[in-house]
What does this fold into?
Amino acid sequence: MATNTNIKKVRTSDLELKDRLVSIQRVTKVTKGGRTFSFSAIVVVGNEDGVVGYGLGKASEVQAAIAKGVEDAKKNLIKIPVINGTIPHKQELRYGGSVVMIRPAAPGTGIIAGGAMRAVLESVGVKNVLAKSKGSSNPHNLVKATIGALCELRDAASVARLRGISMDKVFNG
It folds into this structure.
């Protein structure tokens, strides 16, 4: 994930989180006695109001892998600035072979994004956004790139606080 000072960790105690299964894979371990099958799941959780997290879970049963993924995701929650149902500005980020680009959109546009990115953006609570993924479509890398790009977003209030100036000067120079 991107190393950014804007990342705000969130406690799970007072949140109503909804989980979304992004991907489930059957993985195989070859041993002397034959093949052992297990499942790997990537899950995104969010309260649809600016809080999101992702987790990975592995287990021999599908439901156990999903449950482990949800528990892992709840440990990694972050706060994202959502303004009027969209993001504050354009952002692009690369993670592994995946490159994601997200742009704010006018009200009524909806979420224009593909599978793994759509799950993350819906969990955050963004209603209008244009998103594009380039390069690898690996769900693990897409989720990590999308959350990394969302972590780098800054709203005007945080920019004003960082610079030590008023909100008027942020917009008017």
